[in-house]
Structure formats: structure tokens, C-alpha cells
Predict the 3D structure of the following.
Amino acid sequence: MECLERTVRNNKNRIHTAGMGKLADRTVVIGLGSPIMCDDAVGLKVSEAIESLGLPGVDTLQEAVGGLDIIPMLSGYRFAVIVDAIKTGDYGPGTVLIFDPESFDCTVHDVPAHDVNLATAIKIGRQMDDSIMPEAIKFVAVEVKDLQTMSEDMTPEVTAAVEPARNAVLHIISGFRGQATNR
């Protein structure tokens, strides 16, 4: 419930420029996951860690959504970082990975709306109105161990990854700020 209340509070404070053809010179950090499904909460925890820093020009959201629901959260922002759990089996639990949207091009498919993944949703958002979608989007993913257990506690490996993932997000935000300065 606390996560839901924080999300509502954050959404009320968002600056929207959607429909005006101009992006707010702001960055949004969207943590995705479920607070009650063990390691799936890592995106939420990283976004909360960024929120606690009170960075100027940075808004944070903690959401338990997917698919097309991501589009309104991204719209109007110049830059976006999406933080989420990933389970590839290729890396040890707690490994922090950084991706560009193009990294997921092979996962973009024509599917029913309820089956849309994040990469497909971003592509649809750009097709609908590219002028309201962020100029740059990055993904920070944490390789997880357990997405099946109903628990508010993450595994030790993933808990230990929150700080390195937070640092990865801060590095990306710094790069975005450099891009904004060079324009």
C-alpha cells in the first residue's frame, strides 16, 4: 500500500508537456516490479534509492505495471531510465546490466495489447507521437534469482545489487545531463 501511495503522490507532482510538442527538460526514473514477489521488487527499491537523493530535475516512479501502461509514464520527459528485474540465466544473481531500447529490438512483435512488452510499448509510443516520447531511454536491469516466491524480502544477492544499480542510474543521469548541456 505504501508503494501505491508513493506512486500516486509522485504522479501528482509530475510535469507534463504532452500535447504541447515540447519535452520537459527532466529525467524520469521508473522502477518496475512487485513489492511482494521477492526479487521482482529490485526496480522499486532502486527507484526509491534515487528518490531519497532528491535530485533536481529528476522524478521517480515506482510502478507494478507493464506493456502499454508505460507510455503515459514516459511521455513528456526528455530522458528516461527504466529499472527492472531480469532473469536471463546468463549472469549471476545481482549482476547489474545496462541496455538501450535497441537491445530489445528482437523482442518487438505484433501481439494483442495485453501481451505487449516494454520494447514494443516504446515502439508504439514513438509511432503514436514521437514528439512526446523521451529523446533517450536506458534500461538498468538486475539479474535476479527468485521471481516466484511471495515475499517482501529480496534474496541477499539482489539486495546487495541495489546500491550498484543505483550508481548505474546515477551514471546514466550524469550522461543525460551532459547531453542536455551539449545542445
